[in-house]
Amino acid sequence: MEDKANGSVDTKSPVENGQLPDPSNWGVADVVNYFKATGFEEQATAFQDQEIDGKSLLLMTRNDVLTGLSIKLGPALKIYEYHVKPLQTQHLKSNVS
């Protein structure tokens, strides 16, 4: 994750074949590696400490991410809005089809 001149941070999502990955079969290490790859290396340890696997990740609410992981508010908001929520949405869409 790179700091830009205006102080914002680049929050890239790893994309597979034009789609976000489906985390439903991820283990805890996969979740940790995903967040490390997206630039949240420091915060990724919170997912390991709380034993969040892919199924747990898909069940997380905004409040869970903001308060349950004991990470700073700024990164927590970005993690939820740019990663957890889109992964959940993609998972739901792929299971409906």
From TrEMBL:
Annotated region (Disordered), positions in chain: 1-24
What biological processes does GO assign it?
negative regulation of DNA-templated transcription
Stored InterPro entries: PcG_chromatin_remod_factors, SAM, SAM/pointed_sf
Give any Gene Ontology cellular component: nucleus
Q: Quote one Gene Ontology molecular function term.
A: chromatin binding
> Matching SUPFAM superfamilies, A to Z?
SAM/Pointed domain (SSF47769)
Q: Which residues cross the membrane?
A: none
One Pfam family this sequence matches:
SAM_1
Q: Where is the SAM domain?
A: 26-74
**From what superkingdom does this record's organism come?**
Eukaryota
Checking Gene3D superfamilies in the record gives: Transcription Factor, Ets-1
Give the protein name, as stated in the record.
Sterile alpha motif domain containing 13
